[in-house]
Fold this sequence. Notes:
Layout: H1 2-20, H2 23-29, H3 39-46, H4 54-65, H5 77-80, H6 129-138, H7 147-155, H8 158-167, H9 176-187, H10 195-200, H11 209-221, E1 236-237, E2 261-262, H12 284-296, H13 302-312
Helix pairs in contact: 4-8, 4-9, 6-9, 11-13, 12-13
Bound molecules: heme C (2 copies).
One heme C binds near residues 226, 264 and 266.
Amino acid sequence: MIITKILSVTIVASSILLGANSLVEQAKHNGLVAIPTDTTELLKLTDPKGTITPERVALGKQLFFDTRLSLDGKISCHTCHLLDAGGVDGIPTSIGHRGTQNPHHINAPTVYNAVFFERQFWDGRSPDLEAQAQGPMQDKAEMAITKEEASKRINAIPAYVSSFKKAYSDDVKVTFETIANTIGIYERTLVTPSRYDDFLNGQEDALTKEEKEGLKLFMETGCTACHVGIALGGKMQPFDLSSDFKYNDVGDFKGDKDGLIKAPTLRNISLTAPYFHNGTVNDLATAVKTMGEVQLLVDISDVDADKIVTFLKTLDGRKPDTKAPVLP
Ligand code: HEC
Ligand code: HEC
């Protein structure tokens, strides 16, 4: 009895609050979080272990762009994660070593804001960026190099060895793990604040009336059940909740052992087509309608899908320097 009373009082109180509150409060209430403007606050999120230094970031960027980390010397991380193109390759399924297609017909997700994800990869099999970076180098369909060969090549380039010493210490061992960790540290800086963040951080006029309407609809339709937090995604979630995804049979990807799939970030989403784990949907409004069908059992009209897309475009962020570095 008492519990019921407390509960109904809380519900009334919170709905009054919600009614009176601004869109910003509603967004926060729904679990949406802005990228902090304050550098110290941001570093608490992107660098919990305190590994980021300017020297390591510059070195990691060189390694990210260096094709010598692939067996035939033709492919780098940047081949599939183009920094000027939303951090993706823009094709349905990635093509790596000697033209090999991803055997599971998997689409390359973006490296931008990946630092905010709880897990890495579509099936969440990797815990962080440093661990993740070891995967593609060794993957037969991506860079196809061995740990030994990768570290041998870097150790044979004196300017690299000296950069590693400057970035760590004079007695640093330039192992495969150190190489991968340094790439991961660089990726921790690939954060793209946008007008959406400016709005949530208090700049009322950062979004237009239409964009605000889109944000409201995005929340009211239920998208924030999964696309929440600072990345608007990045957590493992069920897929195909209300009906089957029409293209499930393209490739053999079925999620993790529980059938969960990582909800992709929606930041920079207008730049990262084609969509879904197998890259089967080209157009963003169609992807939004598909989500309504397969996740929420709602038929999102074309007009509403366009409104949501208008909001999603406010997530296109300001990128850090994307210029290719000079390699040693
Ligand atoms: C041949 C294309 C290709 C290359 C080269 C490549 N990647 Fe990827 N990357 C992919 C694909 C495809 C996935 C998704 C694989 C999966 O989930 O199983 C992916 C996933 C990722 C993710 C996880 C993002 C997320 O949303 O979970 C990160 C981070 C990443 N790659 C960084 C890198 C780094 C660092 C390198 C270089 C060491 C690299 N990639 C090289 C295609 C590539
Ligand atoms: C129950 C959780 C859940 C809900 C609710 C949900 N999504 Fe998703 N969303 C996901 C998952 C999981 C994926 C990845 C599915 C896949 O590719 O296999 C995804 C993928 C997407 C993609 C494609 C992203 C990419 O990079 O390929 C877009 C766009 C998207 N969702 C937007 C929305 C919108 C808009 C809504 C509300 C109408 C919504 N989602 C509701 C979990 C959800």
